[in-house]
Design brief:
The complex is a heterodimer.
Chain A: H1 5-23, H2 27-62, H3 67-92, H4 96-129
Chain B: H1 4-25, H2 29-62
Helix pairs in contact in B: 1-2
Classes of the chains: A mainly alpha, B mainly alpha.
């Protein structure tokens, strides 16, 4: 699973060529093929990102940020990855409307997840002004 | 996940395309359609398994 960037680039180009060839005969196979290649590349990325996430976690912990905020940050990143993957797959299949709806859903979920942070900012702002928050 | 999956899907696609052409030329449109459908379901089952693994990985890494 430990792929380098050259391997990933090769897989991407090879899959693109095969997908273009398949598209002439049956489009749905080209879509599934590109989704499979995307899955492979994402797996390669996540296999390498796992230690990095742990490192970032310890960094943020030593910077004095509470784990609540790091959790929200990582959750938002995960939602971004999922939404991008789903929307791109839909766009590949020619379903632009479905792709944009998936993106809207992702944005809404991110706002919902980060609402506690907004609350925190508002509380800090009222404290700075001197009001009774 | 292995690179073999991608080539497997490509191979299934090419075989199904050839079978589809053959059956269509032989005047069996319904069977050509069924072949395409069966191949698509097989490929989808393979991909869906990997998608589920991907979602589980994202869940565990980002703590969703």
């Amino acid at each position: 699973m430990n792929m380098n960037i050259i391997g990933i680039a090769g897989i991407a180009i090879l899959t693109a060529i095969i997908a273009v060839m398949l598209k002439r005969y049956n489009t749905e196979y080209a879509v599934v093929l590109s989704i499979a290649a995307g899955l492979f590349i994402l797996f390669a990325v996540f296999a390498n990102i796992m230690p990095a996430v742990k490192e970032i976690n310890t960094f943020l912990k030593s910077a004095g940020l509470s784990s609540k905020y790091t959790g929200i940050l990582l959750k938002t990143l995960g939602i971004c990855f999922l939404t991008q993957f789903a929307a791109d797959s839909c766009r590949d299949a020619g379903e632009d409307a479905l792709a944009s709806k998936t993106e809207i859903a992702g944005k809404v979920f991110i706002v919902i997840i980060s609402l506690p942070l907004f609350e925190e900012i508002a509380k800090t702002a009222t404290e700075l002004i001197g009001g009774k928050g | 996940m292995d690179v073999d999956l991608i080539f497997k899907i490509a191979a299934i696609g090419i075989i199904v395309a050839v079978l589809n052409q053959l059956l269509t030329r032989a005047g069996r449109e319904e069977q050509a359609l069924m072949t395409t459908l069966a191949g698509l379901i097989v490929v989808l089952m393979m991909v869906v398994k990997q998608i589920s693994v991907l979602f589980k990985t994202i869940k565990s890494i980002f703590g969703l």
